[in-house]
Specification:
five-stranded mixed β-sheet, alpha+beta, 20% strand
């Protein structure tokens, strides 16, 4: 009921609103969702994942249930959000999310490897235009392989003891929306990365962007360090900096889109607070580094003249 211009809801109404299945709710509102492992990822903002009535923003490192998601995503007040989730005056009832049972954490297990890597090599070198010799370096280091069941490209991250701790999967089929997601149970601090001896690390959102940059800037590439965040959270970068005290210069090579630009600003501020003064952005011309690499097959003048040497 409405009292003095404010809408009051009973506890039962609030509980029902907070239990709304967000995937069902967003689909009804025309929002596009992408599969990301057991979760769904918002096409409008890839940093946000959805499961049941819960959500998490990996860039902002916060999450919650249905009501605060609607408040955040649609810029609504609390009463407006509850009213929308309960169907408003029309009384439309959205599907209630099933009660979530606590799930025991799954052990991290790498997908079984295929007997060869023909599909992954073809996908990475032909479709993604990566240099075959660069790809082979990572394959020989057991950092890239083809999984047996789905023929995904698997990008493996190791800890300092040489133990595999994280893996990112990327579908090799070129039709439709490509699959991508992390193997369950992995430690995000050890996502796909390369450790060099110089004082510089280059930071990327995805493994293929990291390999695209190396393909374009091959001279002495293995002297530097590189890390793929497999998203926009900085856990892997922070761990790499802890493991490599010689690194003092951080080059943020994130995507040239809204999510990437916001993450670059957030990570740069976080690093400066940690005492890192040499933190610089390096943006691709297109949305990401692989788009730049593929454009070089028929490069416009600006890409043709681009140098890998930074003037800081």
């Amino acid at each position: 009921m409405r009292v003095s211009g404010y809408i009051y809801f009973t506890e039962e109404q609030k509980q029902r609103a907070n239990a709304v299945d967000l995937e069902d709710f967003l689909a009804r509102r025309g929002e596009k969702l992408l599969r990301s492992g057991r979760d769904k990822r918002l096409d409008a903002d890839h940093s946000i994942t959805i499961r049941g009535n819960r959500w998490y923003d990996h860039a902002a490192e916060k999450g919650g249930c249905a009501i605060d998601f609607v408040q955040m995503f649609y810029h609504m007040t609390f009463p407006e959000a509850v009213g929308l989730l309960l169907g408003g005056e029309q009384g439309e009832v959205y599907r209630r999310a099933q009660d979530k049972q606590p799930e025991p954490p799954k052990p991290f297990v790498l997908p079984k490897a295929h007997t060869d890597m023909r599909r992954v090599y073809a996908y990475l070198t032909r479709t993604r235009c990566l240099n075959k010799d660069i790809v082979s370096v990572f394959v020989k280091a057991n950092m890239i392989y083809e999984d047996a069941k789905y023929h995904n490209a698997v990008f493996v991250g190791y800890d300092t003891q040489g133990t595999a701790r994280h893996a990112h999967k990327r579908g090799t089929y070129t039709r439709g929306e490509p699959f991508k997601g992390n193997v369950e149970g992995g430690d995000p601090r050890y996502s796909f990365h390369w450790i060099g001896r110089s004082d510089t690390v280059y930071v990327f959102e995805a493994p293929i962007d990291m390999l695209s940059f190396i393909t374009m800037c091959q001279d002495g590439w293995n002297e530097h360090s590189y890390v793929s965040l497999c998203g926009v959270a900085e856990h892997a970068l922070v761990q790499l900096l802890s493991d490599t005290p010689q690194v003092r210069q951080v080059i943020l090579c994130l995507d040239n889109d809204d999510a990437g630009l916001k993450a670059e600003k957030r990570i740069r501020q976080s690093l400066e607070e940690r005492g890192y003064k040499n933190v610089f952005p390096l943006l691709p011309y297109a949305k990401d580094w692989n788009e730049d690499l593929k454009a070089m097959a028929k490069p416009p003048p600006m890409l043709e003249e681009r140098s890998c040497t930074m003037e800081l």
